[in-house]
Amino acid sequence: MASIRLERLTKKFGKVVAVNNLNLEVRDGEFIALLGPSGCGKTTTLLMIAGIYRPTEGNIYFDDVLVNDVAPKDRYVGLVFQSYALYPHMRVYDNIAFPLKLAKVPRKEIDRKVHEVAKLTKIEELLDRMPGQLSGGQQQRVALCRALVKEPEILLLDEPLSNLDARLRIETRAEIKRLQRELGITSILVTHDQVEALTMSERVAVMHQGVLQQYGPPDELYDRPRNLFVASFIGDPPMNLIPVEFKKTDGKPALVTDSFVLPLAEAWGEVLGQMDQGEFTLGIRPEDVRLSTEKEGNALLGEVFLTEPLGGGTLVHFRFGEISFRVLAPREIKVDVGDKLWIIPDQEKLHLFTKDGLSVREVGRQDAH
Amino acid sequence: MATHRFTPGSLERERRKQKLLRFSMYVFLILASLPIVVGYLWLFVGAFTGNLVYGFVPQELTVANWSFLWESPSPAWPNIWRTFANTFFLAAGVTVIMVVVSTSAAYVVSRMYFPGRSMILASTLILHAFPAITLLIALYYILRTLGLLDSLWGVILVRAGLMVPFGIWVMKGFFDDIPWDIEMSALIDGATRFQTFWKVMLPLVKPGIAAIAVFAFMAGWAEYIFLVTFVRDPNSWTLSSYINAIIGNYRFTNYGLLAAVSLFYMFPVLLFFLLTQKLLMKVTVGGIKGGR
């Protein structure tokens, strides 16, 4: 087992900066995720940890040992590729045994270990097949076996689930999490799927254009997104983001757009009043809103524009002029297109971002330092 | 009610049209291949008969034309079996050199980035299209300087060298088809760069190797112009030099002997082709199956 520390890690391909000044640390036995849209540098980071790419700048430490110049074969890393990358000319058995054969492990020992991991992932009956004869899910398991068989100190997973169908993905998700916990192996999952990242890992690092946006436990990313990117990327259905202006009318704080005025709680008024600007982006998660037929405190009146039944609830779309606004309504509430309802946001769970895209809470915290 | 687009009558007409099309296609193909077929037919008939009336109608069956197998038709000519062995040596030599050089070069060109890479790629294409005959005199001087005139090694090196660009081009395609992931995976699994090449990459390009090997072997077997230009010593003759001698040295060419030796020359290639044609066809298919 090993801990990992990335220090000012940068990778350039020609003039393109794939990863920019990345600092990240993974505790021994921890399961973290690198999350971001495609092209954000997450796979590049993974391949640098594996030793395939050499960092342009910065350092990689395993257990406080600098490994920048260590060859991939000496890093004790297991990697599962998105494409699985099985060797097409070898039987499943030989695929799994390949790392052990290269390490000159005695034949009997190889046989024992291959059967052991095959049993762990329930593919014992596939050992004599060729990779081309397997389904996607089976290939994925073989790839996982091959990565685990040499008992690596670090397990790297590059989009391991994205080629599986939805059902299998949910099962495999739990399976990998169980295996990781059983083996206690330090693991890094690369994914563009926030559900995968949030459900599987203990901490999530959100990346965008090669830059780390936020690194923390799933709840933290969800409750306190540091900036607009994280706010918009995390959450499904996504957060409503609306450009607003902060004003005090009759001494009462409110957020104003062309189409509505949302009165604010006093606490928010104090925070925003201290800032030297008036324009913000308001973020409200669809699930942090109540709908009511009665007017209550700080509420907005909206007309239902579209409804999408999701099974567990209903996604209700409102429209204010140009602005569309989604609300996740519990299934008990019956909503029809054309209904006029009061939208009551939970003032505690409002998110406000400055023009630079930083969270207002974050700005406050930085000022405090 | 929707109207049916097909009636039994229209279907029948369609089928007849298809049949006619196929028939005319066969007629065209047969006519087009007729000259080649007639040529081979003449070779077969000529090899086993004495005189041909009007150059085509056989008179009597004989194996007299095949006496070259046990006695040399001319004291100046070498033993046919030695010549046969030389031909095989030449073809095998070209094959080995061409396969080894172009496979390793293609791997580098496909996988590694180095200054001049695109120039090498462009030059392989140009060299492949280059008419080798224009190099004849320059090569003569080079081989003379190297002391490789009158030796099969000289011809082997020249022919292999001329085929390498083609080999690189074909093999690069095969290597390009192998996903990077597979190679990275091998490196992470603990293989060195060379082990990756040897244990993972090479097995995956086997069809390509087989294909270029067949091409190289056939080119070596059929080598003519460099042989008759660079090799005079009868001890280094191959079958094509032998045939050249039959045509050139007799005042009146013995067509029976010519046909027999030609058939003898062709036979191994025909056999070889029949055995390997499945591999040859894979050149166009290429790539790897499975793994994804």
Would you mind describing this structure in some detail?
The complex is a heterodimer of chains A (369) and B (292). With 369 residues, chain A is of the alpha+beta class. Chain A folds into two domains: 4-233, Rossmann fold, CATH 3.40.50.300; 240-368, Nucleic acid-binding proteins (OB fold (Dihydrolipoamide Acetyltransferase, E2P)), CATH 2.40.50. Helices cover 28% and strands 34% of the residues of chain A. Chain A is built from ten helices and 20 strands. A six-stranded mixed sheet of chain A has the order 6-7-8-3-9-10, with helices on both faces. In chain A, strands 13-12-11-14-20 form a five-stranded antiparallel sheet. A five-stranded antiparallel sheet of chain A has the order 15-19-16-17-18, with no helix packed on it. In chain A, helix 2 (92-102) packs across helix 3. Chain A is elongated, with a radius of gyration of 25 Å. The relative contact order of chain A is 0.11. Chain B is an all-alpha fold and 292 residues long. Chain B folds into two domains: 8-62, no CATH class; 75-255 and 276-285, MetI-like fold. In chain B, 71% of the residues lie in helices and 1% in strands. Chain B is built from eleven helices and two strands, in the order αββαααααααααα. Chain B has helices spanning 8-47, 80-111, 117-129, 136-146, 152-176, 180-188, 193-204, 206-221, 225-230, 239-249, 255-285; strands at 52-53, 57-58. A two-stranded antiparallel sheet of chain B has the order 1-2. In chain B, a hairpin with a 3-residue loop joins strand 1 and strand 2 (57-58). The longest helix of chain B has 40 residues, at 8-47. Chain B is flat, with a radius of gyration of 26 Å. Chain B starts with 7 loop residues before the first helix and ends in a 7-residue tail after the last helix. In chain B, 30% of the residues are buried. The model of chain B is unreliable at 284-292 (pLDDT under 50). At the A-B interface, strand 6 and helix 2 of A face helix 6 and helix 7 of B.
